Amino acid sequence: MAVLHCTSALLLLFLLQASIANSEPFIGVNYGQVASNLPPPSATAKLLQSTLIEKVRLYGSDPALIKALAGTGIGITIGASNADIPSLASDPNFAKNWVDTNVVPFYPASKIILITVGNEVMSSGDKNLMTKLLPAIQNVQNALNAASLGGKIKVSTVHSMAVLKQSDPPSTGSFDPSFGDLMKGLLGFNNATGSPFAINPYPYFAYKSDPRTETLAFCLFQPNMGRVDANTKIKYMNMFDAQLDAVHSALGSMGFKNVEIVVAETGWPYKGDDNEVGTSIEDAKAYNGNLIAHLRSMVGTPLMPGKSVDTYIFALYDEDLKPGPGSERSFGLFKPDLTMTYDAGLSKGQTPSTPKTPETPKPVTPTPVSNKETWCVPKAGVSDAQLQSNLDYACGRGIDCSPIQPGGVCFEPNTVASHAAYAMNLLYQNSDRSPGNCDFSQTGTLSSKNPSYDACNYPGGSA
User: Fold this and answer.
1) Is 411 within the bounds of a domain?
2) Which of 48, 152, 246, 339 has its CA 20 to 30 A from that of 260?
3) Does a structural domain hold residue 284?
């Protein structure tokens, strides 16, 4: 299916106001604490409540922050460290004490939804931790069961993209065979308990290893030529979708295609050292702003259409004590004084911005065709990049785009132009059918010719 990404089209304000009234359950944020200047937990809780963020991931189990989030309804992911894994694996009482200390006193007032045991263990090279990871997870699960919290709080671990041996093209996604039975055991646990497979995709690192202009646009959800998967013939228009579909393919190749994927980390640094490419506020704003727009469109990925994968953006604040290059300390969406580092469109009552795209021209109201039945279609000669923006915009406004998803009656022909035409018309028909609602930055026009074909019906109506 044509992939939907950054929004840059006519602003239909009354539709936007309806769609942004509530927070988005699939948008989360990482809260790292390797810092010397973090604001008080109560201030962080208030900040989160002022945003579209519905979930926060902690790398540990800070009781002050967990308590501060009580009663907010914000979902909380807490973590057991890599250093805890040997004890969790070998001693069920250690796991019981861990749950009794870090979960039981706070739940359900604090909405703990997931416990991650370890972070990127499988790609750490530490064979001891790798073999003990599953027993540690199982003991935490048993401790939750004993506290009557099994099923209410899930248990998993977090992986880096390095667990994949193959990821390009997405349809060939597969896990590194050296992990073999260890990965199969972890996935079997995910499948049996309904817990997610948590992964850390970073298009930023893909661009860092291939710093071409076209790669940057592909990573930032900006207009680009796209990349075609030769096996499926799907044209991917952004790296995020390609990475997630590679993970989906890898899960399927091991017989676990129904295991849910959660993005535990993704983000873009807004500054870095002089020798680091792509580390600018402009690029960080483009990635996170367009990512949020993409998630809110609820389009999903080509292989997982119709829903947004739960995604935790890295990170809420900078971590000034982290070692490594400057970029490692520059992922924060907010500053310690609670002001925005840049506007990624996370505040309630506003939509994500679409940086680094041409300013949308003021709408020019076309002359109505007539009072006869009319349809909204793209003008001739409109670029695929602009059609992608129209497609993403329309499907992000709450209309039913399932007919142009795989298996839908309007999926074929599988082109950006065909899918955009259907979505543009459906949005027009679901508005007041005023000519201005078919403007789409002067790329749409009204037609008296019914574009329906075969079983694909384009709704029509009088202008």
Assistant:
1) yes
2) 48
3) yes
